Amino acid sequence: MRVLAIGEMLWDVFPEQELLGGAALNFCANLERLGDTARLITAVGNDARGHRAVEQMSALGMNSQFVQTTVDAPTGAAVVSHETSGEPLFAVLRPAAYDRITVDDALLAGIAEYDPHWIYFGTLFHTVERNEAFTRAVLQAAPSARVFYDMNLRPNQWDFPLVQRLCSLASILKLNEHEVRILAIQRGINPDDPLESFTQCVSEEFDVPTICITLGANGCFVYDRGLSVHVPGHTIRAEDTVGAGDAFSAAFLHGYDRGFPILETAQLANAVGAVVASRSGATPPWTVNELHAMSASLVTPRGCS
Question: Considering the entire predicted model, what is its pTM?
């Protein structure tokens, strides 16, 4: 499977250290670990953080073909704190280099040659108006690709009309419990209705066949073409939940594209998300053996080592 992700590569700034992250980068790193091919369209600044980011991508085994360098903005950063519940909060610094991505004939030709099966994106990147047009140009250059939209709403970094437009492009929509409540209220849906009712309504409104909702320690809920399933999570000692949702998305798409049954796809996604949450950093190393240790019924990720 070939995937092209569009969006942010940035440094997660913790009190004691800086770690490379950004939803799009985290997603690609985990796909590569699963044995898929992932490319990231993003930009870094011509600064120390930018140089370190490209070096770190290489260390993660990632291809930087579509990473641009700009002098118009610094490499992205997000200051990370945590709610009392343990959920991470991100103060995203804008403008950032990834807001300055440019499109030209060479880029579009490279995308067409790469011929991705899937295009991945979130919301944050698209809050700059020109970036939404950029994504539509990428989609035109890869007309056979399907879209995975990972909502990833950050405070003060989204608006509902934008979310509606991005939902309408998706074949898979992924969101979390908090985002379910936001979307339900915006659409006049009772946020306390069962998830079956919510996902069916959203699927019909935006013509999205598959919707997955992460439920933290309670696993996930998946709606797929009229059928729905709740898949329990894993009991772990959470070290750092930053990047766990992105790892879930990568593993879900890995299984989904290969035609794994939805139950097994969700089991795989839960396991990868849990492993990442059990250690520090958004892209920590993990192995297939660790996934099997979490779930004896887990389908082996093909091509993964």
Answer: 0.91
